[in-house]
């Protein structure tokens, strides 16, 4: 596992990089030659094995709900010359409206799903602007937030904090796209139902689910990784929330 140099072009920080979508994005971008800074909550054996499988990777450990830890993640990434941020980490869990722990759960979800991506984007986005201005460069940085296709169209009882956080994340994308232009493209990928361990409860009929998806299949993590890779190859799309849901949100 070799260290990433600050001079490297296309240095990517991926938060929650051990999650199914995080891993798929990391594998694709690594194969395409990007330098990877992989954020993980715990620097354990699984994290080190995954990093080693990709070669030139730096692991950055930290709890995104802790302000000091968040600042440390940003500082390390900036020191390594990050110019692409993928805000992928999130908390996805139902909270019953009458739960006695509702307020704590609400705060926990908002910290990771909205405060952390916004503050990380602010710190890293401002640094990209500062470096561009200092060096007289026009090179475009990228921030991509992994949102959720259900955040605008559908309401699922119990998932209000999660859906509200993702809806706010779409708003972050539009605000920062303006505030960080012309130095950074800021966009969101909004996945539909991606076939990952946490996304489909065991009591849900998959055949019935697929029948409501125009492309007639569930998404796979690589569908999201491909969308991320495609967005990184362009410099004129900004402020967009792009559904990757097989057309499900259209019907
Ligand atoms: N899977 C889907 O079908 C689907 C659909 C729509 C949108 N999405 C979005 O896609 C993204 C990835 O989803 P996924 O299913 O691959 O991920 P996931 O299994 O939900 O994992 C989320 C990741 O976030 C990390 N994380 C959570 N809280 C953290 C904290 N306080 N500090 C540091 N890290 C923290 C987790 O770390 P630990 O492993 O240590 O907990 C994990 O790596 C998420 O933003 C999700 O909302 C997914």
Walkthrough of the structure:
This protein has 251 residues and is an alpha/beta fold. The protein has a single domain (11-250), classed as Rossmann fold, CATH 3.40.50. It has helices at residues 20-31, 45-54, 67-79, 102-135, 150-153, 160-179, 206-211, 221-232; strands at 11-14, 35-40, 57-61, 84-87, 141-146, 184-191, 241-244. The chain is built from 8 helices and 7 strands; from the N terminus they run βαβαβαβαβααβααβ. It binds NADP nicotinamide-adenine-dinucleotide phosphate. NADP nicotinamide-adenine-dinucleotide phosphate (NAP) binds at residues 16, 18-22, 41-42, 63-65, 88-92, 112, 146, 148, 191, 193-194, 196, 198-199.
Comma- or semicolon-separated keywords:
251 residues, alpha/beta, Rossmann fold, seven-stranded parallel β-sheet, 8 helices, 7 strands, globular, binds NADP nicotinamide-adenine-dinucleotide phosphate
Examine the coordinates and then state which fold CATH places here, giving the name of the CATH topology.
Rossmann fold
Strand content: 5-15%
Helix-strand sequence: EHEHEHEHEHHEHHE
The tally of beta strands, per DSSP, is 7
CATH architecture: 3-Layer(aba) Sandwich
The unique ligands bound to this protein are: NADP nicotinamide-adenine-dinucleotide phosphate
Please identify which CATH superfamily we are dealing with.
NAD(P)-binding Rossmann-like Domain
CATH class: Alpha Beta
Q: What is the structural class?
A: alpha/beta
Nearest-angstrom radius of gyration? 18 Å
The geometry reads as globular
Would you tell me the overall average pLDDT?
94
Distance between the termini: 46 Å
The percent of residues in helical segments reads 40-55%
The tally of helices reads 8
* Largest sheet composition: 7 strands, parallel
Total domain count: 1
Low-confidence stretches: none
Strand order of the largest sheet: 3-2-1-4-5-6-7
């Amino acid at each position: 596992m070799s260290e990433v140099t600050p001079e490297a072009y296309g240095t990517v920080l991926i938060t929650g990089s051990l999650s199914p979508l995080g891993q798929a994005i990391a594998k694709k971008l690594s194969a395409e030659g990007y330098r990877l800074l992989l954020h993980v909550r715990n620097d354990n054996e699984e994290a080190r094995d995954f990093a080693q499988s990709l070669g030139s990777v730096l692991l950055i450990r930290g709890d995104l709900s802790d302000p000091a830890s968040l600042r440390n993640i940003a500082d390390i990434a900036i020191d390594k010359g990050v110019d692409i941020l993928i805000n992928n980490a999130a908390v996805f869990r139902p909270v019953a409206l009458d739960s006695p722990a509702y307020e704590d759960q609400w705060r926990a979800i908002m910290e990771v799903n909205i405060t952390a991506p916004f503050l990380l984007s602010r710190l890293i986005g401002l640094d990209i602007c500062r470096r561009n201005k200092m060096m007289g460069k026009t090179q475009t940085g990228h921030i991509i937030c992994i949102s959720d296709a259900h955040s605008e169209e559908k309401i699922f009882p119990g998932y209000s904090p999660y859906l509200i956080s993702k809806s706010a994340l779409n708003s972050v994308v539009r605000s920062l796209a303006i505030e960080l232009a012309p130095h950074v493209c800021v966009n969101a990928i909004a996945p539909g139902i991606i076939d990952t361990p946490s996304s489909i409860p065991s009591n849900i009929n998959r055949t019935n689910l697929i029948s409501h998806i125009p492309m007639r299949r569930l998404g796979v993590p690589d569908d999201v990784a491909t969308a991320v890779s495609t967005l990184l190859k362009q410099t004129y799309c900004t402020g967009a929330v792009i559904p990757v849901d097989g057309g499900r949100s259209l019907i």
